[in-house]
Amino acid sequence: MTRNRTQAAHVRDVPDSDPSALTAAYESLASAFAEQGDWRSAYEHLRSALHHARDLPTVAGVPEQHRHEVERLRHESLTDPLTGSHNRRYLDRVLPGLGSAALAMVDLDHFKDVNDRFGHDVGDRVLRHVARILRQALPTGAFCARYGGEEFVLAVPARSGAEAVRVVHRAGARVEAFPWSRVRPGLAVTVSAGVAAADGDPHTRLRLADQILYQAKRGGRNSVAFHSAGDVRILHTLSGHRTAPHS
């Protein structure tokens, strides 16, 4: 136990501005508790390590019968607890390898009004439903991650930008068509999206999708914006699937 107290004191001395050192310190402390069979303390410190880690830590000396608990913690660290989608940590981890996927930034329209009018409990239910709808609309190999707040990222392996736009447009149509009045009378929910084709650096692609998203917002919402022939074009969901250039 003296060793653990010494390591715990060392953790307190590590500055918050050094996440790598914090991760290593908590990981070492978790391993020490695991060696002693104190799994509750080991898991608590592993959670702390996961909180500070850029890459997922490992704990040495974990017996086979307890590894499922470590894997559960890993899963939780990559999953958004509200919606069940992947989270920002997962996206950051896999983004460098998304060389063949179009990226879409999806944002709920007027979500603040939903919270203000119906309350945050309804807002949370809306987020859960939207995340589920977005996941259901995706083809094999694609995924949905909650980026933050009411924003989601869709990664869509596609043969062309047009194919990716169709996938995202169908997802938006499914959101609009959901029977929201069953959640709360008078409730209606739509999304807007910006799609960046599978070209160039994935981080640049994600920033581009975010920029295009705001053009979808300015173009009337409930729509998908994308580049086509050098122009930003907007495919509306509500208004008869019409396509119009953004001005």
Automatic annotation (TrEMBL):
InterPro entries: Diguanylate_Cyclase, GGDEF_dom, Nucleotide_cyclase, Rev_trsase/Diguanyl_cyclase. GO terms for biological process: cell adhesion involved in single-species biofilm formation; negative regulation of bacterial-type flagellum-dependent cell motility. One of its GO terms (cellular component) is plasma membrane. SUPFAM superfamilies: Nucleotide cyclase. PROSITE patterns: GGDEF (PS50887). Signal peptide: none annotated. One of its GO terms (molecular function) is diguanylate cyclase activity. Residues 99-229 form the GGDEF domain. It comes from the Bacteria. This is Diguanylate cyclase (GGDEF)-like protein. It comes from Prauserella rugosa.
